[in-house]
Every structure is written in C-alpha cells, then in structure tokens.
Design a protein that fits this description.
It contains 2 helices and 3 strands; from the N terminus they run βββαα. The protein starts with a strand and ends in an 11-residue tail after the last helix. The chain has one domain: Quinone Oxidoreductase, Chain A, domain 1 (Alpha-Beta Complex). It has a 3-stranded antiparallel β-sheet. The chain is an alpha+beta fold and 88 residues long. It is elongated, with a radius of gyration of 15 Å.
Length: 88
C-alpha cells in the first residue's frame, strides 16, 4: 500500500547525481515500488523531486498522485488543448 510519500534522503547510491543525503523530497512511487507506508524505500532518482522549504511534509505527501490523476483527466480524458479554459 502507499503511492505518495515525502521524506528525507538517508542514503544515495554511487551513481546518484541529482540528490544528496539530507535533501527533503516527495514523490509518487512507480507501480512496481508501491509500498510507501514503509519506514524506508529505495527509489530511482528520476521519480523524486525536491520539496520546497515552504511546503510541509503533509502537503507534499498529498500532491504527487492527485497531480497525476488531474493531468490524466485534463490531458487524456478531456483532451484539453492549449488555450482552452476550464472552470474548477
């Protein structure tokens, strides 16, 4: 269980270039890595993002999956085009 997560990087692999130990991050785990209710998770650096300092961990945890779902609705289901407007 678990798709979204915020956290602090505790270790990095030898080939990791984008992040360092101590970075505050958030992400949505890929389908084969869904288990973010765990205390720790190993995840590819291409699937995480730095958390803004003004964003709480709670808010960061709520963003990735709902962001993906919103994108899929607007882009894939509604096929919105550049310049179109939608009232939310």
């Amino acid at each position: 269980m678990g798709n979204d997560f915020p956290g602090v990087i505790s270790q990095v692999g030898s080939k990791v270039r984008k992040f360092k130990v101590g970075d505050e991050i958030y992400a949505r785990a890929t389908k084969n890595r869904i288990r973010t209710f765990a205390e720790c998770i190993a995840i590819n650096e291409n699937t995480i993002a730095l958390k803004s300092k003004n964003l709480s961990f709670v808010k960061a945890a709520s963003m990735p999956l709902i962001g993906l779902i919103s994108y899929q609705v607007f882009n894939d289901m509604m096929t919105l085009q550049y310049g179109q407007k939608i009232l939310i």
